[in-house]
Every structure is written in structure tokens, then in C-alpha cells.
Design a protein that fits this description.
The chain is an alpha+beta fold. The protein contains 3 helices and 3 strands; from the N terminus they run αββαβα. It has a 3-stranded antiparallel β-sheet with strand order 1-2-3. Strand 1 and strand 2 form a beta hairpin. The chain starts with 7 loop residues before the first helix and ends with a helix.
Length: 65
């Protein structure tokens, strides 16, 4: 069986936790922050788990993470 290549764009965006879950950062934190409330900006700074529907796709892109 040949080695699998890691998708380098995905490797920069996702990482696996110790229990095998995949973590990602949230979007909408780069600009136009003046119209967002402090509470929203605080929440967007936290990491979240990849959704169940996307898990298999992301896991294929980072096979050795």
C-alpha cells in the first residue's frame, strides 16, 4: 500500500486532539470586527470541533496527524 499524502492546506487548519477528535478555528475573525459585539468576538476566538458531517473528509486529508 502506498503512503498517503497529507493535504498541506488542511494540515495548517486542523489538528487532532489526544482522543482523536479534530479541532478547527472559527471564521469571521479577520475584519469588520467593529460591527460584532464583544461577546461574539470572544466566542469566535475559541476553537471548536469539526462537525460530524465533515469529519470523514477532514480525517482523510490529515491521515498522520
Amino acid at each position: 500500500m502506498p503512503k498517503l499524502k497529507t493535504h498541506k492546506g488542511a494540515a495548517k487548519r486542523f489538528k487532532k486532539t489526544g482522543t482523536g477528535k479534530i479541532v478547527r478555528n472559527q471564521t469571521k475573525t479577520r475584519h469588520i470586527l467593529t460591527s460584532k459585539s464583544p461577546k461574539v468576538k470572544r466566542k469566535l476566538g475559541k476553537s471548536v470541533l469539526v462537525s460530524d458531517g465533515d469529519y470523514a473528509k477532514v480525517a482523510r486529508m490529515i491521515p498522520y496527524a
